[in-house]
Amino acid sequence: MAPKVDPSEVKITTGGEVGASSALAPKIGPLVGEDIAKATADWKGLRVTVQLTIQNRQAAVSVVPSASSLVIRALKEPPRDRKKEKNIKHSGNLTLAEIIDIAQIMRTRSYAKDLKGTVKEILGTANSVGCTVDGQSPKDLSDSIESGEVERIASKTIYISNVSYSSTEQGLEELGSRFGKVESVRMPRDYEGRSRGYGFIEFSQEEEAIRALDELNGIEFEGRELRVAEARGGAANGNGGGMGMSRPRSRGYDDE
């Protein structure tokens, strides 16, 4: 009798590795391990949750990163071999804007009532990871942060989805510069270096972000019709638009 298959298996695996999925191979085909390794390659060395949606012995892989995985990946540290290194220490510094980006991604899995609360949750994760934020202890920053500071940064930032997978930060910066001075462009990428289909443009002034929001939504850019929202709305209210990750209503802060 063929083994029973759960059509929505959920597993914890280490990004870029095959081993954690080997027990599934007899059920859904010998290449499932390679599929998981490929889908999680840009999370190499990090513990992430993967969901396998199985149909006709084919598995579609969705990655559901925890807040700690997002924080560690944002540090851009070289991959570590978890089999050789135990109790891995993390250091480095993130900006508050990067913390807000992560909070927006995690917003739909947060128990906080507003974005400020989710930012404080992510600062708590950063404190546990061991990095600094804007050169400060995340705990000290969390104690002193006010809603106005979060809103000030978020109000100058727009969230753009349905971006071409071949788009670059330079392309988005040139697009945003039509409306004012661009402070930064943040575009998450997959293991092949391609855009994940969304990004953030931070302007120097709120008025510039408002103009960009009004004029960019729905325009065609590199063959795709852009969808634009206020970043302070929480990553377009949770509609990932190409994020490449599913979003169950589970908290997911301590998976790493």
UniProtKB/TrEMBL annotation:
Pfam family, one: RRM_1
RRM domain span: 156-233
Keyword Ribosomal protein belongs to the record: yes
Top-rank taxon, per record: Eukaryota
Molecular function (Gene Ontology), one example: structural constituent of ribosome
UniProt region (Disordered), positions on chain: 232-256
Key words, A-Z: Ribonucleoprotein, Ribosomal protein, RNA-binding
Listed GO biological process terms: translation
Residue stretches of biased makeup (Gly residues): 235-244
Keyword Transferase: no
Family stated for the protein in its record: Belongs to the universal ribosomal protein uL11 family.
The protein's name: 3085_t:CDS:1
Organism for this UniProt entry: Diversispora eburnea
Upper classification of the organism: Eukaryota, Fungi, Fungi incertae sedis, Mucoromycota, Glomeromycotina
